[in-house]
Structures are given as structure tokens and as C-alpha cells.
Specification:
By secondary structure, this protein is of the alpha+beta class. The protein has 2 domains: about 90 residues, no CATH class; about 60 residues, no CATH class. It contains 3 helices and 9 strands, in the order E-E-E-H-E-E-E-H-E-E-E-H.
Length: about 160
Amino acid sequence: MNKLVINTQYLENYGTPESPYMKFKGGYTYVMNNCGEIDQNQIATIVAQVKPYITTDLLQTNGSFEEYILDVSVIGQRLPSCEEWKSPTEFYIDGGVHFMKITDNRVDGWMRKEILEKTETWSNDRDCYKVSYLMEDGDICDSEDEIKDWFKAKEVA
């Protein structure tokens, strides 16, 4: 069994829209798991379906940033999709493109330490976006408001 891996490159503009000064700022990894044996035409079709939702250009962002596809590969299902410290975004296509990203804060560590995991799901261009947080005490907060309330309750206790 294989998986399709798409890596993007993010460029941030430190200049103006009229006179850009671009810097490379990392990128993202998108993974379609269990894609089986797919040929070049199937890969191209999948990339064409996903591309509108994972790329952007300077015109779309009023000159502030751009993101483009850097490379596409098919690798074994058990092989790592990206560096251990990165959180890949999984996707599948079923009448639209559906995404899920799980950020393990125990590894990444950029969120408050009380948050163990952040799970985000959405379809297409951030339609039906949902977020949930797994907290250190086992609670699950299903919105930004719930997590704010969780932190407020912990401060009072």
C-alpha cells in the first residue's frame, strides 16, 4: 500500500505588493493515505483537484505571501511522510477535498503546555472548519470559546 505526499513551499513578502522582497518560510505536507498503486495520470488528477485548496499567489493575498507545490511523490504507507517535528495534513477526495490535521503539542510544543493535541478538519477552501483540543486532564474542547473557558476555570481553581 502507498501514500501520495505533496509538499508546498511558503514565501512571505517583506516588501510591498509593488516591490516584493520574498523570503522562504517553510511549507506544508499533505498526505493521501492508502492510495494503492497509482500511475502518473492519476497522480496528476489528484494534484489538480487538491491544488486550488493548498496553493495561493501574490494576487490572491494582496501581495503578502504565496504558496506553491514544491514536489509530489508516492511512497510506502509505512514510510514517514515528513520530518518527525512536522504535522502533516491528511486529505481524501469524496465529492470534495477533505482535510484533517492533528498537531501533537507534546512534540511541537508551540501551544500552551496544557494542550496535548489540536485536531483541525475542513473541506475544500476551509468550508465546515472544526477544531478540537485534547487537554492534559483528558477534557476535549470543541471550539476556541470552550478552550478559553477551560483556561479561565483552571485559573480560578
